[in-house]
Structures are given as structure tokens and as C-alpha cells.
Amino acid sequence: MKKSAGGTAWRVALFTLIVASIFWLGSGTVRLLMGSDLLQSGTLEFEPYLSPDSEREIYRLLSMASLLQIPAYIITIISSVAFLAWSPYRLKDHGWLMAGAILLYVFVPVEAFVMMLDGRMVYLEFFTTADRMAFRELFLARAGALGGVPFVAQLCYYTIVGLAVFQPFRRAGGGGT
């Protein structure tokens, strides 16, 4: 599709980007909240009051949230590339869009690594009879992954939403709409 094809391609990409982002960020937030129930605040130590059955149920719910989060992230990345390629917005004139794109794409390697761990948890949940300790090991690997960078990435993703709403760094009289 071309940029001049009636402007529908970039609008479809934008709509897809928005919907996929809502699912991706929503499921990521749900995962963060569920995972925080397992650990004592500020540590990688498990809560002592949780029964093994409760802990196992949280792992099941985390796996189910990953089933939504992983494809939604992939669709978000693909539709964001399509939107940037086809939209009339020039990054030179719309600094908010450039800042948002940088914040999104700089964390792609982090997300790929974390999605690999999430994919293993999904595999354990739905295709094996793994015990609670296997899930605990994967959960700790994800919670301690890259020294907290996934949490910083999540904060950056919410910053992108703010950038899109308030559109700072916009050049007056810039190209596009």
C-alpha cells in the first residue's frame, strides 16, 4: 500500500496499534499486579502465607495473561512500523511521535527476552505437568530479569501514552496533520 492510497492504510495501522496496545499494556499491568502478590515488597522472596495451591493458581493466571500479552505485543510492533511507514506525520515535525517510537523500539530486545520466559511458562502450563517449583524458577528468572529493566520499560510505555495525548515537541506549522 502507498501513502497516497486515500490515507486508509495508516488509519487502519493506527487503529490496530491502539487496540493491540490496549490489550498488551492491560495484560502487562495485570501480570505485574498478580506477580506482586507472590513476592514480599521490594524483594525476590516469596510471601510465606501463600499456600502451594494459591501460588500455583497465580502461575496459571500469569500464563493465561501471557497468552494475550505476547501476540498483542507482536501486533503492536508490526502495526507501529506500518503506521510510521504510511502515516503523513513526519518525525522531524512531530517530536512526540519520534520520542514515542524511540521509547517503544529501544525495549524490543528486553521484551523479546522476557517473552521467551513467558512463552516457557505458557508451555509448562498448557503442554506439560510441571510442578510448582518449575514455575517458581521461571517466575523468579522473569522477576529478576535484567535488573528491573522490564519495569522501567513498562513505565516508558505509559509515557508513550502521555506523549500521544499531549503531543509535546510539536513543530508549529509542521507537515502532516
Specify the structural class.
mainly alpha
SSE topology string: HHHHHH
Q: Which regions have little confidence, pLDDT < 50, spanning 5+ residues?
A: none
| Backbone CA Rg | 19 Å
Terminus-to-terminus distance: 20 Å
| Helix percentage range | over 70%
What overall geometry do the principal axes of the alpha carbons give?
elongated
Task: Describe the fold and architecture.
The protein is mainly alpha-helical and about 180 residues long. The chain has one domain (about 10-165). About 70% of the residues lie in helices and about 0% in strands. It is elongated. The model has no long low-confidence stretch (mean pLDDT about 90).
Notable characteristics:
177 residues, single chain, mainly alpha, 0% strand
Please render the helix and strand layout as text.
Elements: H1 8-36, H2 52-86, H3 95-105, H4 108-127, H5 132-143, H6 149-166
Describe this structure in a few short sentences.
The chain has 6 helices and no strands. With 177 residues, the protein is an all-alpha fold. Helix 1 (8-36) packs antiparallel against helix 2 (52-86), helix 2 (52-86) crosses helix 4 (108-127) and helix 2 crosses helix 5.
